[in-house]
Design a protein that fits this description.
The chain has 621 residues and is of the alpha+beta class. It has 14 helices and 38 strands. The longest helix is centred in the C-terminal third of the chain and has 17 residues, at 604-620. The chain is globular.
Length: 621
């Protein structure tokens, strides 16, 4: 088989915040992608606004660098093009990782020299080993005070063994790295100057892609992009053959339907730019315009020989939420897209690029059941839609159950927690009440690492409690573990909601009278409506209050001076915190300007009637 010796295709995989995007920054700098005096932002590959805000990679992205290998024995070895795919580290976006691994022949596995392999590391590594990709292990952040590179390397090797790696994969090269300084070395004792040891390992250890230019063209689309002038762009690695401008092509859809298309533009990747080219051949990663209806997982093939390529199986969703057209008293006042049609069109458009997402119709035409890989996966979609001007409501997340061998099963999460020793008992007790099972416990230098397998529904609302219990010092990582038999009921929120009695504006006077028994979610002067949740009760039942009450004024002089009104700062929820907080009888109202918590049934009598009906149905069952 012919090989493209001038190309290497790699993906960078790791747990979230282990330094993937930072490493790509320095790979771009040291290969001359940027001018010497060019100002470049940090984490240049995180181009999405939400990615910059949250400090995580959400979408997989392509770039390419050219590595000049220099001269050996008076022979110029030449230039190697290294196509790099920067992938998300959070398990909720694993669908991005699964499909982009089809474009590459090898992976850089980044592991933090202090934290070691975490749940996200295990998940993405398993996918790459299953595809028989060649790994290079990069132990990053070796300059940390608590770095333990030798122990971490042993843990990585054990992880490879537990995942059933082949012999050639177990013989992986090791690079020690400080990504934020752009330094790499082969041995800890070596002196680091730049990233050349990493580039040499990529060129020498990662196999070149197949280069069969003579066969009919074939390419699997693994990413979709959009251009205002060219429309949809299909991105992927050419499996075989050559493509030229104006060539007639066939699109083989996932349902087997074959459609005619013609190539209008071909782009290759150079640094952060897309460069237009006239032709490309096997092994290249390119973007093609002219395929308006192409989707992820579909094949673009020569019109004379339209044969499909197999697409990697994407894991099924584990969590679902209902997206509902906003019907609150404030509906349509802040959003641009508010109708059923708008909501349906936006969710349908999301399905074309978000392969891990599922959208189903329900009995109610205004309600759509949206399923994803986790809370963060769905929260990012909600935040994106909100910033686009959409206005809607979402229900509390629910896990997706399955029947396996006629046994009701539920999704489990593999949880790793790092906490100071003093909080260990509290965390174990909390996870125990949520049906968690401890798998391991390690102590070192005043900190303890706990490993649990917990039902996914047991983690709903856990993060905020965890941060409070550990006073912000705990670190929580979790990843999908698999389906296991149902473990029984899990206690949900232990505190009730404070529900507003009538429409109006909240007043400092009313809130001051109530604040001893209530944690408020709103500030004075905010418009509220009947059935809106304005705070959290100290008890486990809901309480109805009126935060719009004002001081009665009369023509009688007060016997004493007015007391000074001092209010405690309210607890203002972020989107993720609000999604965690609500339960089955509540909605989160999402608009471009506001996040409001509310009851599904705004009228108190209707809530009581629905609650009685639900209890009667349970008794009948």
């Amino acid at each position: 088989m012919k090989l493209r010796e001038d190309i290497r295709n790699i993906a960078i995989i790791a747990h979230v915040d282990h330094g993937k995007t930072t490493l790509v920054d320095h790979m771009l700098r040291q290969t001359g992608t940027f001018r010497a005096n060019q100002e470049v932002v940090k984490r240049v590959m995180d181009s999405n606004e939400l990615e910059r805000e949250k400090g995580i990679t959400i979408l997989a992205k392509n770039t390419a660098v050219f590595y000049k290998r220099g001269i050996t024995n008076s022979v110029n070895i030449g230039i190697t093009k290294i196509n790099i795919v920067d992938t998300p580290g959070h398990s909720d976006f694993a669908g991005e990782v699964e499909r982009t691994l089809k474009m590459v022949e090898g992976v850089l596995l980044l592991v933090d020299a202090a934290e070691g392999p975490l749940p996200g590391t295990k998940f993405v590594l398993k996918k790459s080993l299953d595809l028989n990709l060649q790994p290079i292990v990069v132990i990053n952040k070796i300059d940390r005070k608590d770095a333990r590179p030798h122990e971490v390397l042993d843990e990585v090797f054990e992880l490879f063994l537990s995942l059933g790696a082949h012999d050639h994969q177990l013989d992986f090269p090791i690079i020690y790295c400080v990504a934020k300084l752009g330094l790499a070395k082969n041995e800890l004792e070596d002196e680091a100057v730049n990233l050349d040891p990493l580039f040499e390992a990529i060129v020498n250890q990662i196999p070149p892609p197949p280069g069969d230019n003579e066969s009919p063209f074939q390419m699997l689309v693994t990413t979709i992009d959009y251009n205002d002038y060219l429309g949809r762009l299909g991105i992927g690695r050419i499996d075989r053959g050559t493509i030229r401008l104006g060539s007639p092509m066939k699109i083989i859809h996932r349902d087997g339907l074959i459609e005619d298309a013609r190539v209008t533009k071909i782009y290759t990747f150079e640094g952060l730019k897309r460069v237009e080219i006239a032709d490309a051949s096997a092994g290249d990663i390119i973007a093609i315009a002219g395929m308006e209806d192409v989707d992820i997982g579909e094949t673009i093939a020569d019109a004379a020989d339209p044969a499909p390529l197999s697409f990697v199986a994407i894991e099924e969703p584990t969590l679902s939420m209902n997206f509902v057209v906003n019907n609150s008293p404030f509906a349509g006042q802040e959003g641009k897209y508010v109708t059923t049609r708008h909501l349906s069109e936006r969710l349908t458009r999301e399905l074309r690029s978000n392969v891990s997402l599922r959208v189903e119709l329900t009995d109610n035409p205004d309600t759509f059941k949206v399923s994803g890989r986790g809370e963060l996966h769905l929260a990012i979609l909600i935040e994106t839609m909100r910033r686009e001007g959409c206005e809607f409501q979402v229900s509390a997340p629910e896990v997706i159950y399955k029947r396996i061998a006629d046994v009701l099963s539920e999704p489990m999460e593999h949880v790793i927690i790092d906490v100071p020793d003093e909080f260990v008992g509290t965390v174990i007790e909390n996870l125990g009440s949520r049906r968690g099972v401890m798998k391991n416990m390690l102590q070192s230098q005043g900190n303890t690492r706990l490993e649990f397998v917990v039902p996914a529904r047991g983690l709903l609302g856990f993060r905020s409690e965890f941060m409070t219990e550990t006073k912000g010092t705990g670190i929580l990582h979790h990843n999908f573990h698999g389906y296991e038999p149902y473990r029984g009921d899990v206690a949900t929120r232990h505190k009730g909601a404070i529900v507003q009695l009538e429409d109006g504006n909240s007043t400092a006077y009313a809130m001051w009278k109530l604040q001893e028994r209530i944690t408020f979610f709103i500030e004075p002067g905010i418009r509220v409506y009947k059935g809106m949740i304005v705070g959290e009760s100290a008890r486990d039942e809901d309480v109805i209050v009126n935060v719009c009450k004002t001081k009665q004024l009369s023509n009688m002089r007060a016997s004493g001076a007015d007391e000074a009104i001092r209010l405690e700062p309210p607890r203002l929820h972020t989107l993720e915190q609000a999604i965690e907080w609500i339960t089955n009888d509540e909605y989160l109202e999402v608009t471009p300007k506001s996040l409001r918590l509310r009851k599904k049934y705004l009228d108190h009598n209707e809530r009581l009637r629905m609650s009685r009906r639900k209890n009667e149905d349970l008794e009948v069952d």
